[in-house]
Design brief:
- By secondary structure, the protein is mainly alpha-helical.
- It has 18 helices and four strands.
- The strands form two sheets. It has a two-stranded antiparallel ribbon.
- Strand 1 (6-7) and strand 2 form a beta hairpin.
- The longest helix is centred in the middle third of the chain and has 30 residues, at 204-233.
- The chain is globular.
Length: 363
């Protein structure tokens, strides 16, 4: 089926197995971060999983393609490191969400996108790929034995089906977690309205964290993701559309127990790499998150992230390959390497300036 065969935004047919395995490709960009946050902060895992599930389905229906829903990684990293409290994380998510909603609603990112050269966008994708690969290596290194098991399982299944390899690794990982924690108890997620204090919202650490996340979200979650959705799925989701939807979900859900969420090119590449071609992958993954929140919170918390790291490495390779289809390889590689070294947001701004200077000289 050609990607352009759509009826009211939805493709006319799909491969069920591909949608299931594609869903796994997106989950590995989110689950390690979510598990780490739940283990190292006051974030409650069950409502976080429910909100991820809700918005997987909501944005899949809205856009009709396998759009991703991921943690805002710059904010999550600060919370995991202890630099942001759970309340500070929520406050920064609300600030970033409000700014994204306004920018998307007033068409700000459309004007930004027009000024961003293709090599810069590809560079952002490469930066994300490199960061994901570095994260994958770190996760795998935490337990080399389980990482080796994941590689062996993945390679063995890939002989029959490359797409099914990720699902097989996750299935084995779930078995390892079950052996560790036993049969999980049913959990009923609770949602209580909890607004951050004025001090949290206006604090210097919160504002700085939100600004850093915004730079990353504009480059990766809006501009680069819009390009990837168009390239992979012939989607007409603009950077402004994605910014507005990111803002809306954070303003709605963060006060009710969600962590700050965004779209992202890594999750889109993960879905595509393992077979997703329609928004059915979002429905599958959304249902999986909600079921996990109710039936298997303990299993998710105990899931061996070393095994997820192996799948995450494959996602990084897919995104990296796409990023190298560029008009100016030097700019793309420069932005990508800078993104790994100093942060995706900083690299995006630096790439804009470098690309502008390059075009001025060429003219």
């Amino acid at each position: 089926m050609a990607f352009s065969e759509h009826v009211h935004g939805w493709p006319t047919g799909f491969d069920v197995a591909g949608e299931v395995t594609g869903a796994v490709g997106d989950s590995v960009t989110a689950v390690p971060v979510v598990v780490a946050l739940a283990a190292l902060s006051d974030v409650a895992l069950a409502p976080v999983l429910v909100w991820f599930g809700v918005f997987q389905v909501a944005w899949g229906v809205r856009y009709g393609v396998p759009v991703s829903v991921e943690p805002m990684k710059a904010l999550a990293a600060l919370a995991i490191a202890g630099s942001l409290s759970a309340s500070g994380l929520a406050a920064a998510g609300l600030l970033a969400g409000g700014a994204l909603f306004l920018a998307g609603s007033f068409g700000v990112l459309g004007r930004v996108s027009d000024a961003v050269g293709q090599p810069v966008v590809r560079g952002v994708q490469l930066a994300v790929a490199l960061v994901l690969f570095e994260t994958a290596v770190g996760l795998g290194g935490a337990n080399p034995g389980l990482a080796a098991l994941a590689v062996a399982v993945g390679l063995a299944v890939a002989v029959v089906s490359v797409r099914a390899s990720a699902l097989a690794v996750v299935a084995v990982g779930a078995g390892v977690a079950l052996a560790d924690v036993g049969v999980p108890a049913v959990t009923v997620p609770t949602f209580a309205l909890a607004l951050p204090s004025v001090a949290d919202v206006t604090g210097a650490a919160t504002v700085q964290a939100a600004v850093g996340q915004l730079a990353m979200s504009v480059g990766n979650a809006a501009v680069a993701t819009a390009l990837l959705l168009e390239e992979y799925f012939d989607a007409d989701a603009t950077a402004d559309d994605l910014a507005a939807s990111m803002g809306a979900m954070n303003l709605l859900a963060v006060p009710l127990g969600a962590i700050p969420m965004c779209h992202g090119s890594g999750g889109v590449a993960g879905k595509y790499a393992f077979g997703a071609r329609t928004a059915a992958a979002n429905v599958v993954l959304g249902a999986g998150y909600v079921l996990a929140a109710v039936l298997a919170v303990g299993v998710v918390a105990a899931f061996p992230v070393a095994m997820l790291g192996v799948v995450l490495a494959a996602v990084a390779v897919q995104l990296g390959r796409t990023s190298l289809d560029t008009d100016r390889l030097a700019v793309t590689v420069g932005v990508g390497v800078a993104g790994l070294a100093v942060g995706v947001g900083v690299a995006f701004v630096g790439g804009l300036l470098a690309d502008w200077a390059w075009r001025r000289v060429a003219a």
